[in-house]
Design brief:
This protein has 12 helices and 11 strands. By secondary structure, the protein is of the alpha/beta class.
Length: 327
């Protein structure tokens, strides 16, 4: 059979490409052709609009509140245990009204990890750390210049903490000790530090036995339940109370009420954070010894003398207050 040359050429000619067919016939269906073969996947992906997870949001708010180091300050050789990059000590400014307590999240995390920092109370600022962290307690002592024989106070969340770490308030005995538990409940929370015998649950490293300190030998501890919203917001988010001591000048027996001055003095000593609740214009707490026959005021402070409290002369006050450090 005779086959023309034209038909032979038509049979051996390669098929037309997909792109040329689509160009020559715009109405032809294109369902079989996938754009993925011609276009990279990265070019087709839309930018993600998913919001960052909650922990990232908190971290960003922390960065805003970081304390900026003054370039004029000297470079200190002492090291702190917790830092935020090159920003140094963490400084969180919180409104005393309680409108922005969410800023305290990084502070609570640092405390749980063993940091030593400064927080406000209903009286003056206090240096605090975790009750069960021995290393943090030793760092606090070195930072404040407190010897091993000096006792430390605790910031409690409620009366339950006081009953756990002390023998509790006197409830009356046959030897003439009055039952003042109900009266004490009306003063808590408030600007009072009550001296009570420590229980077995209280960590031993918080009460060092010294040869010259009667207070330390008797295993007593000062307990506080501050009436301050910032302090309570921190305490209520922790599993146990905080060790505390008031913030003073290093060379003077005077309390520091301005958080900016506190940061300037204690940051070089390794302070990990400070919660700035504004300048405190207040006296220290009133210290009441609850171990005797009557509740005795050994230091008059912000808390007024109540009708069930008594005072002592200066000589007895000097003996009771020897070595006692409180907020």
């Amino acid at each position: 059979m005779f086959i023309s040359k034209e038909r032979t050429k038509m049979r051996v000619t390669p098929p037309t490409s997909t792109a040329s067919m689509a160009a020559s016939n715009p109405t032809a269906p294109t369902a079989r052709f996938s754009l993925r073969r011609a276009t990279p996947l990265a070019a087709l992906r839309l930018p993600s609009s998913r919001p960052p997870p909650p922990h990232r949001l908190r971290a960003s708010s922390t960065v805003v509140a970081l304390h900026k180091r003054n370039p004029k300050r000297l470079k200190y050789a002492s090291q702190r245990q917790f830092t935020k990059g090159d920003a140094g000590m963490l400084r969180v400014a919180v409104e005393p009204s309680g409108e922005d307590f969410w800023k305290l999240d990084p502070v609570i995390e640092l405390i749980s990890r063993g940091a030593v920092g400064v927080i406000p109370t209903d009286t003056v600022y206090s240096i605090i750390c975790d009750l069960s962290n021995n290393e943090s307690i030793e760092r606090l002592r070195r930072m404040k210049g407190i010897g091993d024989s000096k006792p430390l106070s605790i910031l409690c969340r409620s009366l339950r903490d006081i009953d756990t770490y002390t023998t509790g308030f006197p409830r009356g005995t046959n030897q003439g000790q009055a039952n003042i538990f109900r009266a004490v409940k009306r003063a808590i929370p408030g600007p009072y530090t009550f001296i009570l015998p420590a229980s077995k649950q209280f960590p031993k490293q918080c009460i060092k036995h010294g040869s010259s300190t009667r207070y330390a030998k008797r295993r007593q501890v000062g307990v506080r339940v501050p009436d301050d919203p910032i302090c309570q917001a921190i305490l209520q988010n922790l599993d146990e109370p905080l060790i505390c001591t008031s913030v003073k000048y290093l060379s003077e027996d005077e309390w520091i009420l301005d958080p900016v001055i506190i940061a300037d003095i204690y940051e070089p000593l390794g302070l990990d954070f400070i919660v700035d609740g504004g300048v405190r214009i207040a006296d220290p707490s009133t210290v009441v010894d609850m171990t005797g026959a009557y509740p005795t005021i050994v230091r008059q402070g912000k808390g007024p003398k109540l009708d069930w409290m008594v005072t002592e002369d200066k000589e007895q006050e000097a003996q009771s207050m020897l070595g006692f450090k409180t907020a």
